[in-house]
Task: inverse folding
C-alpha cells in the first residue's frame, strides 16, 4: 500500500457521461498530481494542486476539471466522455510544492473504459 | 521545454543477464531532478530513485545502479543479474526546479521482459 488511495479502481461508462475520480494523498503530502496513461500517449501530466490551489496545468482537456479540498483529497471530473478518454488515470502525491527532491508516490490508478 | 527520451521500446533478456535501460533528457534549466519509476504487470507505478542535477555520483542499490552524466544528458539504469521479477515497464522522468511547476515529464517507457 503506497499510502495514496484512488477510487474507484475500475469504471465503465458510456460516451457522453460524466464521472468523478477520487484521490486521497499520502499522509502529510500537500501536492497532488493527476496523470493520464494511454497506450498511444504514454504518461501525460494533467494537473497539479498544492494545498488546495492549482499549481500547474498540462494537457488537460476543457471537458476535464479537478479540485483539491481542504482535507487535501482531490477529485478529477471528466465530462462528455469520448471513447478516446479510455485510459488509466493515476493520482500521485509528493511532500513539497514541486517535485524537487521528492519522488512521486502513486496510487494504484483508476482504469476508465468508455463504451 | 523539457523532454525525456527512452529510445528502447522493448528489451528482452534471459535471467541473470545484465541489462541497461537508456534515458536521455533535454532541459534548459540548470537545476532539475531525474527519476526512475517501475510499473510491473500489476499496473502500479513505483518510485525507484531520484537524482538532482548537481549530484553526478553514480548510485548502486543492490542489483540496481544508475549512471548520471550531465555531459551527455543521460541517466541510465542498469540491472545486474536480472530476475523474472524485474519484468516491468520502466519510466525515466524529469522535473525542472520551477516553483510553479512540480510536474514531471515522463519518457515513453521501456518494457523489460526477463525470461527464465
Result:
Amino acid at each position: 500500500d503506497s499510502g495514496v488511495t484512488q477510487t474507484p479502481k475500475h469504471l465503465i461508462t458510456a460516451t457522453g457521461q460524466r464521472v468523478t475520480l477520487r484521490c486521497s494523498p499520502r499522509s502529510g503530502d500537500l501536492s497532488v498530481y493527476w496523470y493520464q496513461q494511454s497506450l498511444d500517449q504514454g504518461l501525460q501530466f494533467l494537473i497539479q494542486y498544492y494545498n488546495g490551489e492549482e499549481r500547474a496545468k498540462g494537457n488537460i482537456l476543457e471537458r476535464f476539471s479537478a479540485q483539491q479540498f481542504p482535507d487535501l483529497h482531490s477529485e478529477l471530473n471528466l465530462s462528455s466522455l469520448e471513447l478516446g478518454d479510455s485510459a488509466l488515470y493515476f493520482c500521485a502525491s509528493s511532500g513539497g510544492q514541486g517535485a524537487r527532491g521528492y519522488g512521486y508516490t502513486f496510487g494504484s490508478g483508476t482504469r476508465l473504459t468508455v463504451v | 521545454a523539457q523532454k525525456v527520451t527512452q529510445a528502447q521500446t522493448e528489451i528482452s533478456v534471459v535471467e541473470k543477464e545484465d541489462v541497461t535501460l537508456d534515458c536521455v533528457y533535454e532541459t534548459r534549466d540548470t537545476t532539475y531532478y531525474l527519476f526512475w519509476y517501475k510499473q510491473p504487470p500489476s499496473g502500479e507505478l513505483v518510485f525507484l530513485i531520484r537524482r538532482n542535477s548537481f549530484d553526478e555520483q553514480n548510485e548502486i542499490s543492490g542489483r540496481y545502479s544508475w549512471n548520471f552524466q550531465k555531459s551527455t544528458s543521460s541517466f541510465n539504469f542498469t540491472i545486474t543479474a536480472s530476475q523474472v521479477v524485474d519484468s516491468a515497464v520502466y519510466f525515466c522522468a524529469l522535473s525542472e526546479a520551477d516553483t510553479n511547476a512540480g510536474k514531471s515529464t515522463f519518457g515513453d517507457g521501456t518494457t523489460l521482459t526477463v525470461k527464465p
The interface with chain A takes residues 33, 35, 37, 43-47, 49-50, 52, 91, 95, 97-109 of chain B (CB under 8 Å).
